[in-house]
UniProtKB/TrEMBL annotation:
This is Efflux transporter, RND family, MFP subunit. One of its GO terms (molecular function) is transmembrane transporter activity. Keywords: Coiled coil. SUPFAM superfamilies: HlyD-like secretion proteins (SSF111369). It comes from Candidatus Woesebacteria bacterium GW2011_GWB1_45_5.
């Protein structure tokens, strides 16, 4: 088989030369850009905050999930989701027909066993000193049956008395899973949820290495994930004295009170997550720079001033999440290179 000889024509040579020029030009442009892409910043004067950032969620001191003590059929619903309610207001009721029958039957049983117990006691009333074991067994059995009947009557009365759910405090109906009468529910079902918006707070968990830096009254800045561009001011209202039960490590509960609950508006909801920034220390009118421009090696901390590689040793003070105080070595307005 003959190999086909490739013949360079003038046109092909020109095309190859153009392609080579483009590739070579791209190489030098890339090198030029890489040199020009060195990050830089300037030393500024202002406030530096040392912060502890913990993740948490919005909760409410007054937050109730109400259910019936027993099952039954819903006969009446007196509220709707989003409705304001007052303390003691009726919310939802069960059909009381079956509950009332159960109570009346338990009352009748109690009367019956009470009479039987009185008869047993009457038969041994003159034998307190010589009561036989058989007589004692009969008397005790009658008393036990009577007492059990009494307990059953109390339980039936409790179920009847609590067949209507009442709001435990003034608030808003936040959830009503069963919105229509006629639905059968069990004692395990949450029937209605009530929240007092004025009682919301932010809760975080702090481990044993962090909780020592937190104290009641300490200023906090909260940023919710749903409103990442909005800072909400608050202060620590409670720090747990004992670890939380059920946690893997030594974790303490910390509550943060919002400085102005009314300013939160309707957008802030129970369950929303976010970060709480606890201000541990703060300095004003100091020189600072972004953390990434301050380098560390065996000889200490340094920055590159004026141009890349021009090392200047510096001293540092408090360190924030993104910036660090510079105590010496540079002046305000100096240009730093990464």
């Amino acid at each position: 088989m003959k190999l086909k000889r490739f013949k360079f024509t003038k046109k092909r040579v020109i095309v190859l030369a153009v392609v080579a020029a483009i590739l070579l030009g791209g190489f030098f442009i890339s090198r030029s850009r890489s040199k020009n892409d060195v990050a830089m910043t300037t030393v500024q004067r202002g406030t530096v905050k040392e912060e502890l950032i913990l993740t948490g969620a919005v909760k409410a001191e007054k937050h109730a999930m109400l259910s019936f003590p027993t099952g039954g059929k819903i006969s009446w619903i007196g509220v709707t989701e989003g409705q304001k309610v007052i303390r003691g207001q009726g919310l939802v009721s069960l059909d009381k027909t079956v509950l009332n029958v159960a109570y009346q039957q338990s009352l009748n049983n109690y009367r019956n066993y009470q009479a039987a117990a009185e008869s047993a006691l009457d038969s041994v009333k003159d034998h307190s000193s010589d009561e036989t074991f058989a007589q004692k067994a009969i008397r005790t059995a009658a008393e036990v049956v009577r007492d059990n009947a009494y307990d059953a009557m109390i339980a039936a009365k409790y179920n009847l008395d609590n067949a209507t759910l009442l709001s435990p405090f003034a608030g808003i109906i936040s959830s009503l899973p069963f919105g229509n009468p006629g639905i059968n529910v069990s004692g395990a079902d949450t029937i209605v949820e009530v929240v007092d918006p004025s009682s919301v707070y932010f809760e975080v968990d702090a481990d044993q290495s962090e909780v020592g830096s937190i104290s009641v009254g300490q200023e906090v800045v909260i940023i919710l994930d749903s409103f990442s561009d909005k800072e909400i001011k608050g202060s620590v209202s409670f720090v747990g004295l004992t670890p939380k039960i059920g946690e893997a490590g030594t974790i303490y509960k910390v509550k943060v009170k919002f400085s102005d609950v009314k300013s939160l508006g309707n957008g802030t909801k129970v369950g929303m997550t976010g970060d709480a920034r606890f201000i541990l220390s703060q300095k004003e009118n100091v020189l600072y720079a972004p953390l990434k421009f301050v380098n560390t090696d065996k000889n200490g901390k340094f920055v590159n001033v004026g141009k890349p590689g021009n090392r200047v040793n510096v001293g540092t003070g408090i360190e924030g999440e993104e910036t660090v105080e510079i105590t010496n070595g540079v002046s305000e307005g100096d240009t730093l290179y990464d």
